[in-house]
Specification:
Length: about 500
Amino acid sequence: MVTFVDRVQVHLQAGRGGNGCVSIRREKFKPLAGPDGGNGGHGGDIVLLADPQVTTLLDYHRRPHRSAENGGYGAGDYRAGTNGAEMTLSVPIGTVVKDDAGETLIDLTEPGTRYVVAHGGIGGLGNHSLASTKRKAPGFALLGTEGWAGSITLELKTIADVALVGYPSAGKSSLIAALSAAKPKIADYPFTTLHPNLGVVQVGDHRFTVADVPGLIEGASEGKGLGLDFLRHVERCSALLHVLDCATLEPGRDPLSDLEVIKAELAAYPVPEGQVPLLDRPQLIALNKVDVPEARELAEFVRPELEAMGYRVFEISAASHAGLRELSFAMAELVETARAEALQDEIDQPRIVLQPKPVNEGGFTVRAEGGSYGTLYRILGTKPERWVAQTDFTNDEAVGYLADRLNKLGIEDGLVKAGAVAGSTVVIGPGSGVIFDWEPTLTSAAEVQMGARGTDLRVEQNKRRTNNERREEYHTLMDAKAEARAELERERKAGMWSEEA
């Protein structure tokens, strides 16, 4: 049965925006008193919250699909739809949020940090909001847009001050149980610890947290054992405590060889950019199980060699609590030094100035794409794509409103520059998008009719008559009338008809 999860993929669906309403107000003696359709409500956002009360991602392992509430539809009498409720997902402190491509979106290291990971859709405008002096009674409304849908990866990296690292069955779980009130599973077989355990150590006026990282073996940085799954829990620790087993009965093992293997694995593990490599952090060595006579002799034998390497070495026993007080004060000293350095780094850091993009930015791009069926022109941009999603294509008036909006944004000028002509295939949005044949919109006689680049159809197809042509046509018409009158006169004189008849 799974009891601890520190990496999980979550599938999110933010709420959809509600559709706007098409309605006409009716009053006494005013059957058509004007549009009164309300706007649709916005869809609910999905927010991640760093919660100190949450310690695992197990809930998201069991229920990986989460959906926020949709926005309500607008109604007549100016009634707006309700906004979808925001969905808050509590995650442990130290959770790293990544997108599908593996890019880090945010690192939730502070309690109470909130991050909107999925934005809800925008509610559509009702016909009351679309009314203007030129469009007094719109017969259409805008549709609500879909909320963000996709997958994210939540990866938990334990936040502790000191990490206990060492071989399986080195006594790390027993040590953290002796130093703190933590109650990890303890047994006499390897890989007893299957997930990191946190304990709070109080020594004098100092308080810090200690993480018991599951046992490492040779090749852990390459995925052997449980190494890759739990080495990332060492990333955030400011100091390391090597717990070396001095009473091991396995052949070919001793504290010095164990230390070299663990150091090699820590050196091979890549830390994120900007962090101190694991082996460059302060380190202490604890020679454990000195309550066993043979282990004490071995500890006294290897201690001078370890101290010659520059380490502070402590002979301890998690069972009898021997040497734990001195070790606790040494760890507290490293933690206080690391905290002071971190505080100074925060003070020395330059102020970060955030300059968000304007919310009304109307940028778009027009890209020509070739294919087996000819060239098509793809339009990409936040506004064009959103406007298309909001359009009810079964309503001709709504389609005309979309064409006006696209024209005002400069879409037609962009298509002309890209080489499009009347009848060209245009796609708005990625993938299949919305496909239509482009027909240019001319709002004045001064605009150039669309044709191939370097051509002007007004010049090539000029049918306007000149003065000479008009004069010749007039004279021809007058001659035809005179000839018709003369013909009638000849018929009358010949007796073919008379005026009395």
